[in-house]
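Dig into this one:

. . .
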Amino acid sequence: MASGGSSSSSRAWTQRQNKQFECALAVYDRDTPDRWHNIARYMGGTKSADEVRRHFEQLVHDVTQIEAGRVPFPRNGYGSAPPVAAGGLDDMAATRYAT
């Protein structure tokens, strides 16, 4: 997932930044005041509050598309994806990552 724009911080997110973002979401839940500013600070100044908010919105959209079956499984020899356990992504997207 990439953010729009032309500044250096708007480039595609690295694997490390995505992991850092996931950790920040666990630290700063939806009830945290100034959540996006806190997450941006957690990212070490590499992303703005707007960028982390947009990245989150894209993440929620992607999860919704996957759960709705609108994203085909890759045909690269990995086989089928494991089933989502009850209370898996639905609860995560609805509670942990909710805005």
Q: What stands out?
A: The longest helix spans residues 49-67.
